[in-house]
Design brief:
Layout: H1 2-17, E1 28-33, E2 36-40, H2 54-59, E3 63-64, E4 70-71, E5 76-82, E6 89-97, E7 103-110, H3 112-122, E8 128-131, H4 139-147, E9 151-152, E10 154-155, H5 163-172, H6 202-221, E11 228-232, E12 239-243, E13 246-250, E14 254-260, H7 264-299, H8 305-337, E15 342-344, H9 346-358, H10 364-386, H11 388-397, E16 412-413
Helix pairs in contact: 1-7, 3-10, 5-10, 7-8, 10-11
Length: 418
């Protein structure tokens, strides 16, 4: 009992820094995208809230959504429904009450393969959708892959193994990898498409990519070079309104660009120097506590009541000491938080996002799903804030809706950026 308790305590600080390891899983060939190979191996779900803290940008990034939609005319969504008897793409019904008190129910243009995972995704407070800074359950394989300059991909659990998740992966690499101009194909070379996805033209997409690359190079030569970005809706306003009997939105996907502060390296080194002895002390106390707990567990049956009380008291002291030491580490990190902040680049972010929009989203099929997730998730959060129970019932009503095509989202990207 005590042994297990302090085995957990000893591991606590490791868990405080990184996610836990899971059992190894066999990877296998999955899909290809524009000549780049991808595979899948067991990986943890991405469950991270969206923030503007440095840890989020540096450790997660990727594609993320957290906006809450607003009515363009001061109204509100009062009900959501699903009508399976209607044609796919017109089954989501939204009741909007206008500022004047009049309500009308209209269809939202979204297909089932998008609607179901987005509704489940929006039910969670963790708005991170996917990241290329991911982990595998097999830590040995993870290290080998990263050392070889491969990428590890993680997804929100409601987007994992969905075509929406696959499209958001492409959105993350849309402006930095030319292979994103194509679409994922299965092992037979057949493109993976959802209902409503038509008009794919990879040659035209490559032309758009080349034009954007030239635009980015020009900006970089003028000193406007980002270190990285987060794709999604950070800082953006999404509005909805009823137009011609259908739901309409405003707001385009946003590339939130950032740079590191010049003093970052020095601050990280200073934090590491101050933190290292505290971590060493914590781990030493945890190890001592585990050893003591093991001896108590063995001797417990023969202990007197007085000895048991003393043992419990000492274990309580270890608990208190470990808690205090962990708090010291957390306080130290919080003191450095502001010194590690990234520098946002709003002018470049605005210009880049608008340029991508002007170029048809580079890959229109990918950009359309990115936009649909942004708008629909924001709409769902709008309703969820007003009627949490009603939103739960709506999500439950989608339980029997099939999500096709069935896909297996890759968690490994092989050396695309070498």
């Amino acid at each position: 009992m005590w042994q297990n308790r302090f085995r957990t305590a000893a591991a606590c600080f490791l868990l405080f820094i990184v996610a836990a390891s899971w059992a190894a899983a066999q990877s296998y060939s999955a899909y290809s995208l524009g000549g780049v190979t991808y595979a899948r191996s067991a990986a943890p779900a991405l469950r991270v809230p969206v923030s503007v803290a440095h840890a989020f940008f540096r450790g997660v990034g990727g594609v993320a959504f957290s906006a809450v939609a607003e009515s363009a005319d001061g109204g509100a969504v009062t009900a959501l429904g699903y009508d399976g008897s209607r044609p796919d793409g017109q089954r989501l019904l939204v009741t909007v009450q206008g500022f004047d008190g009049n309500a009308q129910t209209v269809a939202a243009g979204i297909f089932d393969w998008q609607l179901v995972p987005i509704a489940r995704f929006a039910a969670d407070v963790n708005g991170s959708a996917m990241t290329l800074f991911g982990q595998l359950e097999d830590k040995t394989a993870e290290k080998q892959l990263l050392d070889a300059k491969n990428r590890i991909i993680n997804y929100h659990d409601q987007l994992d193994n969905t075509l929406v998740g696959l499209r958001l992966l492409q959105a993350d690499i849309l402006i930095i990898q030319e292979n994103s101009t194509d679409l994922f194909a299965d092992s037979s070379g057949i493109l993976i498409l959802g209902d409503g996805e038509i008009g794919h033209d990879v040659d035209q997409n490559r032309q758009r990519f080349a034009e954007l690359a030239q635009w980015q190079d020009q900006r970089a030569s003028e000193g406007q070079k980002y270190q990285s970005y987060v794709v999604g809706d950070i800082g953006q306003r999404v509005t909805f309104s009823v137009q011609d009997g259908r739901l309409a939105f405003t707001g385009i996907p946003y590339w939130y660009c950032w740079q590191s502060k010049p003093e970052l390296k020095q601050n990280l080194e200073q934090l590491g120097a101050l933190e290292a002895p505290l971590v060493e002390q914590y781990n030493g106390i945890a190890s001592e506590a585990q050893t003591y707990a093991s001896s108590v567990e063995i001797g417990w049956p023969t202990m007197t009541d007085e000895e048991k009380l003393a043992a419990n008291a000492r274990i309580g002291e270890y608990d208190s000491t470990l808690s205090s030491k962990k708090q010291q580490i957390e306080t130290l990190r919080s003191q450095f938080e502001s010194t590690l902040d990234v520098l946002p680049m709003p002018e470049l972010s605005d210009a880049l996002s608008n340029k991508i929009y002007e170029l048809g989203g580079i890959n229109p099929i990918v950009y359309q799903t990115l936009t649909t997730v942004m708008h629909t998730a924001a709409l769902f959060r709008h309703f969820k804030e007003r009627d949490p129970a009603g939103y739960d019932l709506f999500v439950q009503s989608l339980g029997g809706v099939p999500v096709v095509p069935a896909v297996e989202t890759p968690t490994i990207q092989y050396s695309a950026l070498q």
